[in-house]
Amino acid sequence: MKLIRTPDEMQEMSAQWRKKGDSIGFVPTMGALHEGHRSLIQRARRENRKVVVSIFVNPLQFGPAEDFTRYPRPFYQDRRMCDASFVDALYRPDPERVYPDGFATTVEVGGLSSLLDGEFRPGHFKGVATVVLKLFQQVRPDRAYFGEKDFQQLTIIRRMTRDLDLGIDVVPCPTVRERDGLALSSRNVYLSPQERSAAPKFHQGLDAGAAEAKKSRAKPKDVLAAARKVVARIPGVSIDYLRLVDADSLADAERLRGRLRLLGAIRLGRTRLIDNIPVICKD
Ligand code: AMP
Q: How far is CA 35 from CA 3, 47, 81, 195, in A?
């Protein structure tokens, strides 16, 4: 596995592969890799001749009071996982190379970026879209793999890719969970033992909402009430939001019809968790 540290080197490597006709699959991450990331890498491995994983804790997507400095960075462990998963190149650029002095251009996906998590993390999705577009330009992949765990992020990247004619196939990958239902996240390490044991109730609440949607005459507000009832019982929880939305526009669902998604964000102590599930309606 090749370790790449600069955008120039990455572009050169990618150009060589493309010249030979090799397809490139790309998995962008912030590191602290777990089985969720591994599932994306394995899918990329199956579908492409070359696989690139990036590890970049992107300063642009963290707010001033967020966890940028304490975000876990277990690089040697991550490198081992990539090696064992037959990754061709691990791309780990320095922030100064990604954002050199004078850097001034950002990308904003209108509308979608200000909803849901965007209301609680102003500027977050601008940071995400900007870094993903830059990484796409550096890696020039045929396919890029994103987890449904970050459903709003996936939706925004898909829209950006379409709006800017990037010609990259954005591949959504299902959320990998612990046996008790908690979605795997690099941030789960922040949870105290008590918080960790209560955390699966978040997913149980979403499940309760989805179950409600299958009942005849159920309305969106019943789905949300059923989810909230379970999630609100988590000791010490603070709910940022629980919303039932259209899976494409992310607009609040007015009826139980079409492709819907139940999404939420909660705080447990100092840790913020997000999760979401599809909602299948009765008709
Ligand atoms: P991150 O390192 O948190 O930025 O995540 C990198 C990629 O892994 C994103 O596309 C995430 O959606 C995806 N990912 C994170 N957690 C999971 C999970 N539990 N299951 C599937 N994909 C995930």
A: 21, 18, 10, 21
Note whether residue 156 is domain-resident. yes
3-state SS assignment for residue 186: helix
Q: Are residues 69 and 106 in the same domain?
A: yes
**For the whole model, what pTM was predicted?**
0.98
Does the beta carbon of 33 sit less than 6 angstroms from any atom of ligand 1?
Answer: no
* Structural domain count, the chain: 2
Atom of ligand 1 at shortest distance to CA of 176? 20
How confident is the model over 163-186, as pLDDT tens digits?
A: 999 999 999 999 999 999 999 999
* CA dihedral angle for residue 186, residue 149, residue 34, residue 46, rounded to 10 degrees: -150
CB of 36 sitting under 6 A from ligand 1: yes
Range of the domain at 229: 186-279
User: Among 66, 150, 276, which residue has the most ligand 1 atoms within 8 Å of its CB, making it the best to mutate?
Assistant: 150
Digit-coded pLDDT (tens) for 263-282: 999 999 999 999 999 998 87
- At how many degrees (to 10) do helices 151-163 and 124-139 cross? 60
Measured in Å, residue 218 CA sits from the centre of ligand 1 at 32
Same domain, 122 and 92: yes
Distance 58 CA to ligand 1 centre (A): 14
The answer on 193 and 169 residing in a single domain is no
